[in-house]
Design a protein that fits this description.
Number of helices: 14
Helix content: 25-40%
Order of helices and strands: HEEHEHEHEHEEEHHEHEHHEHHEEEHH
Radius of gyration: 20 Å
Largest sheet: 9 strands, mixed
Low-confidence stretches: 1-26
Strand order of the largest sheet: 6-5-1-9-10-11-12-13-14
Shape: globular
Number of strands: 14
Amino acid sequence: MASDEPKAKKLKLSEDEKTQSPSKKASPELRPNLLFGMGNPLLDISAVVDKDFLDKYSLKPNDQILAEDKHKALFDELTKKFNVEYHAGGATQNSVKIAQWMIQEPHKVGTFFGCIGKDKFGEILKKKAEEAHVDAHYYEQDEEPTGTCAACITGDNRSLVANLAAANCYKKEKHLDLEENWKLVEKAKVYYIAGFFLTVSLESILKVAKHASEKNKLFCMNLSAPFICQFFKDNLMQVMPYIDVLFGNETEATAFAKEQDFETKDIKEIAKKAQALPKVNTKRQRIVVFTQGKDETIMVLGDKIETFPVLKIDPKDIVDTNGAGDAFVGGFLSGLVQDKPLDQCVRAAHYSANVIIRRAGCTFPEKPDFK
């Protein structure tokens, strides 16, 4: 480009496309490493359990928590007593995988950073990432084993208990700051980090968020769980000014509103208030997207509130809701990476979630059937 002016216009144009009517412009050239994700890589151990099991470990049917000492025996009991399945998991990693699956070609559009142990579970995660065509770069250490997440399923509810272990050992200076790794961060134009990573490495998140903000790229985050909004709210609010797209579900939104003294339980009002929170990059208005299970999805951009009905599904076709939220985000990200209008991003998100809840774990058929 000869001058900065056409560049500025081009930015403005893509901004309008993002926020207004669907554009006729063809999708941009997709290339590897356009989407960057960083989070807790976990091996999901899922099983259908009974209420007695939930009660024994004081678990709510639909929740996400970090394992405490009282949950240590849970993992052993789960594998011995119930029919378990192992799936590569971790919220951010799931979403990056789904985005890559929706995109299909080229491979490795999605990059993922996280920490694993030098063990069998770590090898499984590496293999699964490769199979999903995600460009995973793990920080490998041998002090802690690869993290696991027990997904305790009852009916269409899932209670998640995460034992972060190695995932908790991610170090900015030992991985993110390395020149070859930071180059991958710079190559991306859409960034996604689930709120769960706020418990691990706030400094890593802020480095990526500030880069995105300075370069007018899209930084996306997820409230992820009520406990993040409650006990890690200071970390969350340090990152909030850099968030361009904020995801969450109705339970998380309600917990967030309570902690922020929004004085409302109305999800649309909460979305509006979250959208209006201070923001560093004023070239982009924040987009807030809240899902509500089988009820409509709410999206707020500026003073505009839109609602989108989810795809109908017969309850008997629901196998596992564990990956639904991650799949929703993955579908949405696949649209963002391709500069699709926001309503198309929501459509892709609903499609992905609808596919994933029909299967065990955050798994998917070979190819999407999405037009």
